[in-house]
Structures are given as C-alpha cells and as structure tokens.
Amino acid sequence: MSFSIHGLAVSRGIAIGRAVLVASSRADVAHYFIEPEQAEQEVQRIRLARDSVMEEISRVQRELPSDAPAELAALLDVHLMLLQDEQLSAGVKHWIVERHYNAEWAITTQYEALARQFDEMQDPYLRERKADLEQVVERLLRSLKGAASPVQQSASRRTPQGELLGDSMDVPLVLVAHDLSPADMLQFKQSLFVGFATDVGGRTSHTAIVARSMDIPAVVGARSASALIEQDDWVIIDGDAGVLIVDPSPIILAEYGFKQRQAELERERLNRLRHTPALTLDGQKIELLANIEMPADTAAAVQAGAGGVGLFRSEFLFMGRGGQLPDENEQYLAYRAAVEGMQGLPVTIRTVDIGADKPLDRSARGDDHLNPALGLRAIRWSLADPPMFLTQLRALLRAAAHGPIQLLVPMLAHAREIRQTLSLIDHARAQLDNKGQAHGLVKLGAMIEVPAAALHLGPFLQHFDFLSIGTNDLIQYTLAIDRADEAVAHLYDPLHPAVLRLLADTIAQCRAQGRPVSVCGEMAGDPAMTRLLLGLGLRSFSMHPAQILLVKQQVLRADAGKLEAWARRVVDSEDPAAALQAG
Ligand code: PEP
Ligand code: MG
Fold it and tell me: Partner of 107 at 20 to 30 A CA spacing, among 194, 525, 536, 544?
C-alpha cells in the first residue's frame, strides 16, 4: 500500500529506488555488488564464517567451568540455534543470489528484517532474543572480516551510481536509516546509493550538509521512516519537497519519473553557465567559492567553476577513526592535495571543528553530553589540547608552501581566545623554523558564528585578514535552536529579524573597514537568499559545489546597487519572509 512520509528537504532532486535499511552502528559494513557468477563463492564465505562461529561457541560451551551459571549454557545454545536458523540463512542467501549483495551487506540486511519481526513479537522473552541475534550477527561479521572477500579484493564494485545503473544490477538503491553521523555519511560518499532518508536531523545538521555535498536527493527528520519502510520497498525520495513516497503506484512513479527528467534538463541548462563570469547586471564581480569536506572534493569544485575553496571542513579528516587523530604528515598531505586540486586558486582551510553533532566517532556521540553545541567544540576543543592544535597548524603552514592557503578559525567569541590562537600559530611557525622545515605565508580568518562575535567585531577586525560568517551556527546560537534537532526545525529561521540584523551589521562593518567578508553557511548556497545577501553588500559566497551554478544564475539576474534599499527594508521589516517574497 502506498503512503507518504514528510520530513525536511535537504538536498534537491528526485531519487527512485529500493530501500536499503542501515543501522548507524552498521554504516561501516562494506556495501558493494558482486557479479552474479560470484554468488556461490560469497554464499560459501558465509557458510565458512558460520561454521567457524559455531565451532567457537561449541568450544566455549565445552570449556565452561562446572560452576558456570546454567543461563550461560542456555544462552550459547540459543546462539547456536540462531546460527542454524533457516530464516537467517535463506534470507542471507536471497540477498546474495537475487540482489547480488556482498556477504556482509546481505547479513546486515537480513538482520534488519528479522529484528523487525522480533520487535513485533508479543512475548517479552522472544522479543528479547533480538539482542542474541544481534550478537550472532556481530560474530559473523567479525569472522568475515578475518576472511576478506575475494570478490572485493579482485573487483571492488563500489562504483559510482552511473556505472551501476548501466549494468546487470540495474536496481537503484536508496538508503534509509534512523540516524547517520556525518562520519557515516562520508562512508557512503563514493557509494552506490542514489538517495538518502533519515528519521532524525535538522536542515543544517552536519549529516544533512554532507548529504547536500554529495548532491543526491535527501530528506532528514522523516521521524519514523526507518520503522515504516521495509527492506527492499520501492521508495521515491523527493528532496525538493522533503517527502518520501513508499510503494508508489504506477501513476505516481510516472509523474516522478517525469520530474526527474525535467530536473536533469534544468541541470544541463545550468551547466552552460559554468564559464560565465559571476557579474551582476551592474557589473559587480561576485566571488563564488566551494565548501568541501575532503581533498578529493576539489574536483567537483573546479568542475563547478568555483573561484577557490571558501571552507574546507578539516574535521572530516579526524572523524570515524575510532578517536585516532591524523598525524602531522597525514594532514599535511591532505591539505597539500587540496591546494594542488584547486590548481592555484585559494583554499581556505578551517581548523578542526569537532564537537556538537560532529563527534570524533560514533562511540563518542556528542549527545552523551549535556549541551554539546555549547560545550567543548571547535576552537575550544583545539585550545584545550595545544599539542593536537599545533600539529594541525604545522601541517597547514607546511602545505601553504605549495599554494595559497587561508587559515580559518571556527567559533571564536572571546578576545582571549583570539590571542591564544594567534600565539599558537606563531609558535607552530617557530617550531617549523627550528626544524628548518619549509612553510608558507597564510592569510588569517575568523568565523563569525557566535552572536557575541557578531555583536563585538572590534577584536576580529583588529586581528584578522578576513571574516567568514557561519550562518548555520549563527542562527542556531542566536535563536537557541539545536540545528540537528528535527523537533525544533520549524523554529530554525534564517530570516528572523535578529539573525538578519547580525548578518547585515557584520557585512556593513567589514565593508566600512575594507575587510573581506564572506558567508559560508548554508544560506550562501540558497538561491532564494542570493538577492538579499547581495543587497546587504555581500560579494563573496561559499557553498557546496552543486549550488554554485544555481547561485550564479541569481547573481547574473541581479542589480546589486538597486537591491540595497530593498534589502535594508527586508532587514528592518517585522516580517522579513513576507518582505522577501514581495520584493
Ligand atoms: C556554519 O556554522 O555556518 C558553518 C559554515 O560551519 P559548520 O556548518 O561546519 O558548523
Ligand atoms: Mg559552524
């Protein structure tokens, strides 16, 4: 039966595919397709893994001391029984043979399906057996890890979706999860999914930001989507409207297929603007920069015609590594790769912004803390660990010897923090000098993303070469709305008069002092905001590469001079959203 689920639109476009339900804890399980003729080999891997796990459990059972509690022996019996369960093995085989999933993916997929059946059981004893099943699956996955897939080794099929759709496994897949951390999303960046949906998350949560950077349709905050959608269901993800349509009728499918083709045509039209200079009608030159998460993203930035990188979120190099931080050389190579990727264009690298909804890894989720967004995050985290921060600074300064790097510091609020940061930068430089290591000059920038900074710009204008307004956090902290919490997403408002005033004043003060200023929050990539930001005097915008041409289209149609008076009226209005619409 067809039904729809409403969430928040985070990444444009329409995706149509079969649902793959993934638990966040399993996001690091390999997902790739095998060739049909490799199915028997993959099924055999599972058999061997199962035999070895059964052998392991039987050995534990044999060696149980005589005074071991009887429950323990019974528990091991249950595990042995589950391993031999027909539903588990037949299901896993089905995903491998019929759908060509690799072994690990097939196991976790079947686990999700069975776990759901356990959840629905009336008998509490049976319901609790889900935990046993989970442990059995864990053991199987561990055993499989010890016996890497020959398929994966010989022919990794983690191909980009385009290639996949063309071959025999021509069923597009959409990923549905309760929650995915930003690090999980990164795992899927080069994957085979054509769309994403999660139960939780706000429009500017970092999970949503990574989805947007992948430029595939995504919906977050879809509440109970992962409970209502079943493995293998056909799902339409409407990333423009923020809607999921499950099990659509042929008529609906045809309608969305049409919309997909229209969007494709629109993209082709936009692509023609790639080489058009970003000039307003009155001849103002507008800088359109890219936001990236990884050095490899520079390819998309160059492809979209970005004038440089306005925000490299360096924390993505630090995440999903079990807390193991990248050393100086690894970071240096990554920053250097970004500089080289941009072929001489400037690259703004933000120092690490770990914390809040960007924990280092899943086991250290920020939400274990009382108020993660207000806690030890970004520059606070860096200043709390000078050796770690100095390592990053040295890597950045060394990479600057290879091309133009600008160093951007997140979440500063206090003059004291500014002084500490600048002194650590000097210290890092001195360390490199002492070792005789080459390094380059960098321009220094600060993010304005805490209201205190926007309201007291003096120290920032005094110490920094440029400022970059992080509207995602500026809105979160001005309105006291957790940007990652879908329950308050309706109150997260870029057009709140208080937000607009902070934005307008910051831009105006920078301009009055001749200090370069840009916006690198999601507002910069929203074409509905371009005219307003131009009218407020903004001349530098940084956004996901996929947004650049959409924003350029707005720039080309705008007369920046004429927009000034109108923008002032919008900011002064009691209802800026209505004034924006009217204008
Ligand atoms: C912002 O806060 O607007 C910003 C660009 O930084 P992030 O989204 O990574 O917090
Ligand atoms: Mg921020």
Answer: 194
